[in-house]
Amino acid sequence: MPTIVDAIVNRSSKRAFLPKPVPRDIQEKILKAAAMTPSGANMQPWITYAISDENVLKNIGDAIIDKMNSGVENDQFIQYYPLNWKAPYKKRRIETGVGLYSLMGVDRKDVETRTKMWHDNFRWFGAGTVFFVFTDKSMIDGAQGALIDCGAYMQTIMLAAQEFGIDSCPQGSTTEFGRVVADVLKLPENLALLYSVVLGYEDKDAKINTYKPNRVGIEENVVFI
Question: Model confidence over 128-145: pLDDT tens digits?
Answer without folding.
Answer: 999 999 999 999 999 999
